C-alpha cells in the first residue's frame, strides 16, 4: 500500500532475536501425536503446565499484534459443571481434567492499540517512525467500523473503486469482518495451546459442539465477545482416541502453483 511506511521501510524495536537451533524430530512427535481426545484418565494436569501452555497460546502470531483474544481457564467447580453441560455433556468435556474457553475479542483492537502505542512511544523515535504511523493512523482506519458500521460502509465503497486499479486490502469493513479477523488469530492461539499440551505429555480436544450464548452468560462476557471454541485437556485414556487419524489425499489440499 503506498503511503504506508511500515511496508516500505525497516523497523528496529530493540534487540533482535536469533533463530534458535530446534529439534525437528521432537517437533514431529508433538505434531504427529496430537489427536482430538474424547476420553481422559483421572490424572491431574499440574497447574504449572496449564499456566505454561496458556502462556504459550498467547505467543501465537496475531493480526497487527493486537491480540484479539481471551482464554478462560474454568476452575470453579460450579462453573466447570455448567460448562460441561453447555458443551452438550460430550465425553471430551465430561471426562476432561481442565476446560479452557477461547474467546475472540474483535473489540480489543482499540485498547490493545493504545497499549502498543505506549510501548512504542518509549523506543527511539527515529527507529519506530513507521510503526508509530501504523498504530496511530492505519490501525484505526482499518479496524474502526464506526457508528452503525457507517464508516465500514464508506470504506467498502472506497476499497471497491481503489481495488479496480491497484492491489488493496478489502477488509474488515463490517462486524462480521471483524469477527473473522479476531477468530483467525484466536484459533492460531488455540493450536499453540493444544500443541503445547502435547509437548508436555498431555492431550486436548477443540470443541465447537457447545452453546456459545450460555457460555458467554456463564463467563459474563460482553456482546462483542464471541466464543471461538472450548478446549478440553487431560491425559489420554487407552480408549481416548477414536481410531487412527484419517486424512484425505493430499493432492486435494496441497497445490504447488
Ligand atoms: C473448530 C473445531 C471444532 C471441533 N469440535 C469438536 C467437538 O465439538 N467435539 C469433538 O469431539 N471434536 C471436535 N473437534 C475435533 C475434530 O473432530 C477433529 O479434530 C477431527 O476429527 C480430526 O481428528 P484429529 O484432531 O484427531 O486429527 C473439533 C475440531 C475443530 C478444529
Short description:
By secondary structure, this protein is an alpha+beta fold. It is built from nine helices and four strands, in the order H-H-E-H-H-E-H-H-H-H-E-H-E. It is 44% helix and 10% strand.
Task: Name the descriptors.
257 residues; 4-stranded antiparallel β-sheet; alpha+beta; 2 domains; binds flavin mononucleotide; 44% helix; NADH Oxidase; 10% strand
What value does the average pLDDT take?
95
- Overall helicity: 40-55%
Second-tier CATH architecture of the largest domain: 3-Layer(aba) Sandwich
What is the element string, with H for helices and E for strands?
HHEHHEHHHHEHE
- Tally of separate domains: 2
**Strand content range:** 5-15%
Small molecules held by this entry: flavin mononucleotide
* Sequence stretches where pLDDT stays below 50 over 5 or more residues: none
Shape: globular
Question: How would you describe this protein?
Answer:
The chain is of the alpha+beta class. It has two domains: 140 residues, NADH Oxidase (3-Layer(aba) Sandwich); 54 residues, no CATH class. The chain is built from nine helices and four strands. A four-stranded antiparallel β-sheet has the order 1-2-4-3, sandwiched between helices. The chain is globular, with a radius of gyration of 21 Å. Bound molecules: flavin mononucleotide.
